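Researcher: We plan to redesign the surface later, but first we want a full-length starting point. Tokens attached.
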């Protein structure tokens, strides 16, 4: 992995939801104190327990947020795509990184130091408000995941995961990025074998269709 010195273009910063409320002057300031980092597929971006010194925003590629259970098995807490950020909580409360972030594909990231990000929040209420919205959304998603684990069987958890991963496309719900059965199992707390069985049953029953690397949710 490597870091690229120098600032980011205003075009890149302007496209990021977190900074959508900034004017050109503030974007120019931010461009001078931010940089890029490139990470190869499979590499750690951050590790749990490390001190939190930067905010990261994914520009290209995908990454997964992971931790491990008491038996050392990997648990996937979330997937991140372009425009999504991580590291905010530690910058606010000073705690170490609470999870690993691993590049699922080659990634390019925006990097903003703790001091620069805190100054940006202090000077721009819109950035602080947007950050609060991001954190509230994550809290709601965590509540849904806990509810699923507590109340739904594996069939229900797989179905909810498929809906959460899908996007609207021409009136259909489509999962555009291929995800392995093992990764699905790590996200819902089930075995890979059970996830494979549920996916087969859903396909044979006409609820989903697999089209290459894409999965289409057909409904009943």
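Model: Full-length starting sequence:
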């Amino acid at each position: 992995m490597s870091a690229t010195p120098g600032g980011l273009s205003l075009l890149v910063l302007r496209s990021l939801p977190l900074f959508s409320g900034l004017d050109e002057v503030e974007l120019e300031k931010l461009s001078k104190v931010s940089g890029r980092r490139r990470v190869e597929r499979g590499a750690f971006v951050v590790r749990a327990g490390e001190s939190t010194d930067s905010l990261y925003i994914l520009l290209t590629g995908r990454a997964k947020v992971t931790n491990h259970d008491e038996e050392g098995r990997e648990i996937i807490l979330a997937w991140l795509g372009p425009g999504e950020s991580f590291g905010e909580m530690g910058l606010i409360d000073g705690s170490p990184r609470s999870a690993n972030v691993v590049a699922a594909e080659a990634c390019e990231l925006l990097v903003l130091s703790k001091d620069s990000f805190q100054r940006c929040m202090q000077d721009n209420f819109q950035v602080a408000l947007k950050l609060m919205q991001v954190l509230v959304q994550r809290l709601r998603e965590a509540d849904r995941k806990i509810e699923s684990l507590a109340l739904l069987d594996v069939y229900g958890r797989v179905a909810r995961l498929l809906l959460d991963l899908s996007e609207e496309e021409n009136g259909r719900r489509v999962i555009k990025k291929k995800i392995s059965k093992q990764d699905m199992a790590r996200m819902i707390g089930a075995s890979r074998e059970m996830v494979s069985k549920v996916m087969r049953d859903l396909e044979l029953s006409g609820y989903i269709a697999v089209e290459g690397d894409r999965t289409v949710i057909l409904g009943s």
